[in-house]
Amino acid sequence: MEHKPLMKVFIVEDELLIRNSLRMMLTKYEQTYGIVYAGEASDGEIALSMMREIKPDILLTDIRMPFMDGLTLAKYAKDLFPWLHVIIISGYQDFPYLQEAISIGVEGYLTKPIHEEELCEVIQRARTNHEKMLIEQTDPSKQEKMIDFEYYKEHFFHKLKDGKYSTNELFDRQKRLNFTFIGKYFTILVARLTPAVKDSSLYHSLITRFSELFHADSQVLLTIFDDFTITGIIAGDRLEESLNKAYYVADILQYELHKYPEMTFLIGIGCQTNRVSELGGLLQKHEEALALTSDQSSQPIIELAVPSTKIPKEITDAFMPLLEPEHLEIPALLSEIEHLRTTVSSVSDPSLNQAILDTIFLWIKQVDEAACDDLQQEYTNDKLETICQTPTLFTLTSRLLLEELTKLKNQQKNPEYQSKTDKIVQQCVDYLKENYADPNLSLQSLADHLNISPAYLSTIFSQNKQVTFIEYLTCIRMEQAKKLLVETNHKIIDITFFVGYNDPNYFSFTFKKRNGLSPKEFRKTAKNDNEDH
User: Fold this and answer.
1) Domain named HTH araC/xylS-type: which ranges (predicted)?
2) Are both 22 and 95 inside the same structural domain?
């Protein structure tokens, strides 16, 4: 029998009794319909923050809710999760809203009070629609169109990087590309995939999945080349919106690529610009920077440092084998630098020297951004110009910078070393430990507190802690709950509120799911154990 992946269902409903009822019904029918209850929220704002990390397949949401209504939530959620199946919960008085729901792409409706057979029917319909969509994607005619469009995008990106398009020509291609260039900010995204075996079936499988995820999104222009590199431009009305969206796209890519356990990958988030004329040059620089970044980076999503000058391919090819993360052979690198200076004839000496120093600065920035900024303040443009024109100064500077790089790499091995992202994550952990009792604590509220984007926070937190923000917060709350159950005589309903839950039923459900015992059973078992000792 073919194994079908479970579809994750998320509930958003402000009425506690309805939420409890839906949770019980969903868990009852998990095996029957191939679903799994994935979480719940009482309003749209908190829901959206949680859904960013859970990435559900089915959304059950009420229409009328405080802070963010169900239709607004559905619209934002469909933008974030193109695969999402939305089921609206409504009262009879909500029918005027249904026309708008249809335009958003809602595919199921439940009226209050909700009956089991009606819930099962809409869940089954969502499952059937999902499977139908997967079958349609394998249809030969659709596959052919998809591949043709992918080839068109590949051709477009090649010409864009070669500077073959004027601004007006880019505007003319907006409709064909389903992407808006006018009046937008852009963030560059590049990636390198290293599968165990590079074959056409895997390539076409990735094309199909990425097309499903991003084809309808006019803010994402992304393609995968047959050498398993990815190039993308992410648009937004504001700079921070574009950057936030880029991190979200990277997170989705990471989520999908982790389904291939034998594949390694590196995703780089790069520069932002609002100038269409700069896109081609930036894409080229980012691909060069990615080529100079080791696959063995500890984090699959990185902020990509980009050199200020074009780096000749000869440098990339020569230096990469010498950039193992565990050791840095300075004599070998200096020898290679000298060899390049005598053999690369396509670039003048000062320009080649500048490209080599830019490459070293790039490596330093990948290790420690703050240290690189300090060094670049010390090595001003005027000073570097003199250094690059003087062979002895250039050799000395190369050695000093490589020694600094070695020192920074060694510092990273120190258990007490904290990178920029380590410090942000530590701030998060400290904040969560102090504020876990706040029922409104969310990824969004924490991001607002730290003044960073929620997508960026989600990325660095999960990479640093190996669990999502929600999972980490839940762990803190559960540990505190166990402590209170064992060490105090507080009622379970009081402990519910002490650890940040508004709903005792949901608290008990979560506790039992994680610990195998209800809070009452856990307290009784702990008490018996203490008496035995």
Assistant:
1) 426-525
2) yes
